[in-house]
Amino acid sequence: MTHDDLYEALVAMHRGLDAEQSLLVNSRLILLLSRHVSDESVWRRCIAEARAGVAETTSVA
To answer: Which InterPro entries does this entry report, sorted A to Z (predicted)?
Structure first.
């Protein structure tokens, strides 16, 4: 599977889902993948990369 194929599969996975369902399916996918990727350092690097560039600040009301 190419990166483009993977991207298309991920987009298709979310098609027709609302925001809550998308969050749920993402969580389920992560848990399923964790069964196959057991190296903690890989997970830590991926988590850091996924978080990079996402706003670190949140507004507090």
So the answer is: DUF2783 (IPR021233)
